[in-house]
Amino acid sequence: MPELWFPTRKLGGLFSVDECARRLSAYRYAEIEGMRALLNWIVTQPAVHQKVEFGPHAYHDAQHADALGKRLPELRVTEGAEGPYPLMTSPRADPPNAEFERFMTTLQDQEDPLLRVVGMYGVLKPHLATHYLYHMRATDQVVDAPTVRILRFMLIDEEEHIQWGRAQIEEMACTPTSRRLANEWRTHLEDLLVRAGGVSGERVPDEG
After folding, report:
1. Cα–chain-centroid distance for residue 173?
2. Which residue would you say has higher pLDDT here, 58 or 12?
């Protein structure tokens, strides 16, 4: 009988165990801070249909952080971890650098309802989704299969959040003035994100 299943997963990837753990810690930081932003905004966001969605999205972010926290001890990040193996959870959630922390603080401190949605769903979540997809493809598909599985399920949530957020931005930025304001805020946050090197902290030297 010939073999009827051709393996698509290959050994070898771009990340060492330590580098994978570093990135997951940064992802966990972004998920936790995104969750905090949404929970803090619920009370003061005027549109009820947005309040209703912020709660579940924050809950999804909390689940993402929990899954990443459970993966970190498997990547040798055990300092401060609690619980019996394999249910041990790491508390690690480290921004890649001070610039990314500044980006998150700037996003969180926004009080304008439209600009909050632009920052969360037009900048942060699309950025994270792009990095999660890259990580899934670049990491070792066999040895790091648990990370790939975690990120795959996280991406399902993030893509749903992004699509919802895009609809909200279209709904709210419905005048030339509001659309210009939204684009200016998006550009400002993206500038901060680029300076930080994104959630991975990988900066590109400024050619200027």
Report:
1. 24
2. 58
Instruction: Give the per-residue pLDDT at 206.
Output: 67
Measured distance CA(165)–CA(132) in Å, rounded: 19
Q: What pLDDT was estimated at residue 170?
A: 97
Report if residue 11 sits inside a domain.
no
Instruction: Indicate the number of domains in the chain.
Output: 1
In whole angstroms, give the CA distance from residue 142 to residue 8. 10
Q: Is residue 80 part of a domain?
A: no
CB of 59 within 8 A of CB of 39? no
Beta-carbon contacts of 169 under 8 Å, excluding residues fewer than 6 positions away, are 114, 117, 118, 121, 122, 182
Q: Is residue 126 part of a domain?
A: yes
Asked whether residue 57 is domain-assigned, the answer is yes
Structure confidence by residue, pLDDT tens digits, 110-130: 999 999 999 999 999 999 999
- Boundaries of domain holding 100: 38-64+95-196
DSSP letters, 153-189, are HHHHHHHHHHHHHHHHHHHH--SHHHHHHHHHHHHHH
Tokens matching residue 55: 């709660």
pLDDT at residue 86 tops 80: no
With tokens 């749903």, the residue in question is 160
CA distances from residue 30 to 3, 109, 140, 172, 180 in whole angstroms, order as listed: 43, 15, 23, 25, 27
Res 2: pLDDT:
72
Distance CA 192, CA 99 (A): 7
